[in-house]
Amino acid sequence: MAVLPATPAAAHGGAVLPAIQPRAETPTLYDDEAGGNADADDPAIWRNPADPDRSLVVATAKEGGLRVYDLDAHLVQSIAAPPAPGPDDAPGRFNNVDLVHGLRLTTGRADLAVTTDRGSDRLRIYRVDPAAPGRPLTDVTDPAAAPVFSADQAEINEERTAYGLATWTDRSTGRSYALVSRRERTTLALLELTPTASGRVGYRKVRTLDLPASFRLPDGTSWSPCAEPGELPQVEGMVVDPANGTLYAGQEDVGVWRLPADLTGTPRLVDKVREYGVAATYDEAADECVAGHDPGYGGARLSADVEGLTLLQESDGDGYLLASSQGDDTFAAYDRELGEDNEYEGGFRVTAASAALDGSEECDGAAVLNQPLGDRFPDGLLVVQDGHDTPGDGERAATGFKFVDLGDVKDALDD
Q: How far is CA 30 from CA 106, 329, 396, in A?
């Protein structure tokens, strides 16, 4: 839970950030009964190697399930989340999604879309079939797949379930994994994806790691981010650098961590949110945290929450780690190279292209692909969630996804 009031910022380190306009947007999702309780959250970009123009964006809509879009941001497929197992249980709620390429199944190698179903505390796994343009995703989840963190349905109903997600294929072994965070806890879990003899895909837990929940400040005091009683500072946005197996994890009210993707070794903070170290008190009536004195220990580029981590990879090993600074509607870019200690490289905003095509506010999730995607996005694509879409009816909770030409992003960061 971010400290309120938020600290608005039009600049990072005194420099005004460039504004980038999206090229397209998905149809608005509405988080109400009429809209199927659909709430946009996290995207992933699947490139069709045989026909890049027919590449896809797979995105979560929470209780609304999954959405699949083409490069014009038109809806291709909608997949419902599973129903609640019982009258007092939560329905499926798809939170984050990522891709695995070339997993060996009994039916042959396959690309997979993996999502966290926070409603059931499980992973859901879908095979991507480019030969089925109207129905490219097929559920291949092993029905025997167990909850990730919970012992039983009663514990699942407490909603401290699978939340953030990043996939990783270990180049030294060829094994593929999902790294999963736990809602309202600091726990990360490493799950190995395990194909079955029937062509389905399950998973097994390898190990877990708990990030800190409290922090020693330079003045010798201890600080924990403000939250509702019983909640710990959770992680959602995550991404793994495939070249070196480095996991970047966004602890929403703390900052961005760097650690080995196999969850061994010591985590290190790459950057902190501005609110780091700020004493705050939870106001139950207002359901928000009220900030006190700022001792000045926070960072200068991220306003809580940290969300939407994604990796812009370049062929020479360079590139950027991109992070959504949700509290001030900006994006921060860090050098991908560990030798540069993930140095801050700049930032940008995604702003309105027209009255009909708005920008991105309070971005939850983001995905980038630095490969040509046909005529529409020859320089690659950045997809960002928009937490406040601007439809005709402003009375409904509305979200969606914006498609941004990656060439515009690279130009902004190179300036």
A: 39, 21, 7
